[in-house]
Amino acid sequence: MINTIAIDDEPLALQLVTGYIIKTPILKLAGKFDNPLDANEFLAENSVDLIFVDIQMPDLSGIEFTRLMAKGPKVIFTTAFAKYALEGYKLDIVDYLLKPFSYEEFLTAVNKAQNIINLEHKAATGIEANNEFLFLKSDYKIRRINFDDILYVEGLKDYVKVFTRNDPKPILSLSSLKLLESKLPSGKFMRVHRSFIVNLEKIDTIDRSRIVFGKEYIPVSDQYKDRFQEFLDKNFL
C-alpha cells in the first residue's frame, strides 16, 4: 500500500482527489488537508509515500511547499493552470494533473509513482517483484491471488472481475483493467479485448475467434487479433 495525502484549498477538488485515492486499491489515504501548513505538521510526525498537492493556494503554494519539503515523498501536482508544468518538472515531480482530470488520468499518474517507488524500494532492499502472485483488495479484505489460478479477467468500468479455477464466483475488486494488466506477467497473460485479459496457459479451446472457458466465450477483438494470432502460430502444430 502507498501511503498518500492530498492537499487542496478547494473543497470540491479535495473531495475529488480523496475519492479517487479511496477507490484505488494500492493507495491508502493517510490524510487530507486544505492548506500545506497543516500538511507539513503532519509530515513531521508521519511517513508518507505520495502527495497530491494543488499549486495555487494561500500562504504557501504547492511549488513552494514542494521546495521546502524534505526529500522522500513523491509529488503529483493538481492544478487548473498548465503554465506551471515546467516549474513542476524542474522539481522532479512524478506527474502533473490538469484540472478537471478523469480517474483514468489519475491512475496513469499513480502508475508512474508506483513504478518509481517500487524501483527505489528494490534498490534499497534488494527485493524483486515476484512472478507468482499478487494481492487484491476485495470485500474489505486483501486476498492473495496466484497467477496460475487465474483463468481470465474482465474489466467493468472502475471494477475488475477475476475468474479463477478455484472459486465458483469471480473475485470483484475496485481497480482498472489497465492497472491490473501492469501487474500480470506479460509472458503468461494477454489482453485480447478491451474488456478481457486471458491466461494463455489456461486456454484449452478456441471457437471462431473466441476463447472458451467452460460455458464462457471470450471474444478476440480486431485490435488484439494479430498479437493473439502470433501466439497461436508459435504454438501451432
Notable features of this structure?
single chain; 237 residues; alpha/beta; Rossmann fold; OB fold (Dihydrolipoamide Acetyltransferase, E2P); elongated
Task: Walk me through this protein's architecture.
- The structure is a single chain.
- The protein is of the alpha/beta class and 237 residues long.
- It folds into two domains: 124 residues, Response regulator (Rossmann fold, 3-Layer(aba) Sandwich); 102 residues, OB fold (Dihydrolipoamide Acetyltransferase, E2P) (Beta Barrel), CATH 2.40.50.
- Helices cover 33% and strands 32% of the residues.
- It is built from seven helices and 15 strands.
- The longest helix is centred in the middle third of the chain and has 23 residues.
Order of helices and strands: EHEHEHEHEHEEEEEHEEEEEH
General shape: elongated
Structural class: alpha/beta
Strand residue content? 25-35%
**What is the third-level CATH name, the topology of the largest domain?**
Rossmann fold
| CATH C-level label of the largest domain | Alpha Beta
Count of separate structural domains: 2
Biggest sheet descriptor: 5 strands, parallel
CATH architecture of the largest domain: 3-Layer(aba) Sandwich
Oligomer type: single chain
**Could you estimate the helical fraction of the residues in percent?**
25-40%
Overall mean pLDDT stands at 87
